């Protein structure tokens, strides 16, 4: 899969395109989200979230626990100071067409004589102009969150994948540090975004247990993400 992504990036790097005047990269959007989180904190629960029964109620209980524990961890750090420090960090590699929401569930495989191979990538609504590091951080981060210990750095957990990508694309700058900080900020921003969807906006999802699984994975990754970001 990483080989496929690298070749996609390699091909897309040669596209000629007009850059939107008000373009914001994923990194810039995360800095804005960190500032909002620093001022407002995690969204709190709506009364309706706990007013159901049965299976849905069990999922809502899980979601409330995640929100409560995440809020405790985030309250122990200075989000405003962290946002200011991150804003001073450059994570602005060359921009080009990228997928932006390239995670494991969006990649399809087929079985061939030589083994499994990528047959397609779905759900391209988020595709746009950004740094390629966003895609690799999203993909490796989705593997990391899916199971096992979420605390090791991405390059240490998936060394062969990172090596293969670098061999093909030869990215400039501190690429490994970029993908790590993009993943770590995505953990915090992901929790913040889901809490806003669920608690502030009252969005409904067909399978709250799957949503709870996802938020619990983000919560497991949160302590290590905070620890690394405080050293940026």
Short description:
This protein has helices at 2-12, 26-40, 54-75, 79-87, 133-146, 154-157, 159-169, 175-200, 208-229, and strands at 96-98, 107-112, 115-121, 128-130.
Q: How would you sum up this structure, described in words?
A:
With 232 residues, the chain is mainly alpha-helical. It has one domain (2-13, 25-229): Aminoglycoside 3'-phosphotransferase, Chain: A, domain 2, CATH 3.90.1200. It is 58% helix and 8% strand. The protein is built from nine helices and four strands. Strands 1-4 form a two-stranded antiparallel sheet. A two-stranded antiparallel sheet has the order 2-3. α2 (26-40) crosses α8 and α5 crosses α8. The protein is globular, with a radius of gyration of 18 Å. The protein starts with a helix and ends with a helix.
Q: Which band does the percent of strand residues land in?
A: 5-15%
- CATH architectural designation: Alpha-Beta Complex
Contiguous low-pLDDT stretches (5 residues minimum) are 47-53
Q: Give the strand tally.
A: 4
What's the story with the biggest beta sheet?
A: 2 strands, antiparallel
Radius of gyration: 18 Å
Number of DSSP helical runs: 9
Q: Determine the CATH topology.
A: Aminoglycoside 3'-phosphotransferase, Chain: A, domain 2
Helix/strand-derived category reads mainly alpha
Number of domains: 1
Strand order of the largest sheet: 1-4
The H/E string reads: HHHHEEEEHHHHH
Q: Let me know the average pLDDT.
A: 84
Shape estimate? globular
The end-to-end span amounts to 29 Å
Helix percent band: 55-70%
What is the CATH top level name?
A: Alpha Beta
């Amino acid at each position: 899969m990483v080989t496929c992504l690298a070749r996609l990036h390699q091909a897309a790097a040669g596209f000629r395109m007009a850059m939107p005047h008000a373009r914001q990269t994923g990194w810039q959007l995360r800095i804005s989200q960190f500032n909002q989180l620093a001022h407002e904190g995690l969204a709190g629960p709506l009364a309706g979230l706990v007013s159901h029964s049965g299976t849905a109620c069990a999922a809502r209980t899980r979601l409330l626990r995640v929100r409560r524990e995440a809020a405790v961890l985030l309250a122990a750090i200075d989000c405003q100071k962290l946002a200011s420090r991150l804003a001073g960090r450059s994570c602005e590699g060359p921009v080009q067409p990228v997928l932006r929401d390239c995670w494991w569930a969006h990649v399809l495989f087929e079985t061939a004589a030589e083994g499994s191979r990528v047959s397609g990538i779905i759900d391209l609504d988020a595709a746009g102009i950004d740094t390629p590091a966003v895609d690799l951080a999203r993909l490796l981060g989705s593997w990391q969150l899916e199971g096992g210990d979420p605390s090791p750095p991405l390059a240490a957990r998936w060394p062969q994948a990172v090596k293969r990508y670098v061999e093909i694309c030869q990215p400039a700058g501190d690429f490994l540090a970029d993908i790590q900080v993009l993943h770590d900020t995505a953990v915090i921003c992901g929790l913040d975004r889901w809490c806003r969807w669920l608690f502030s906006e009252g969005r409904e999802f067909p399978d709250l247990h799957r949503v709870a699984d996802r938020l619990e994975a983000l919560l497991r990754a949160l302590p290590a993400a905070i620890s690394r970001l405080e050293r940026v």
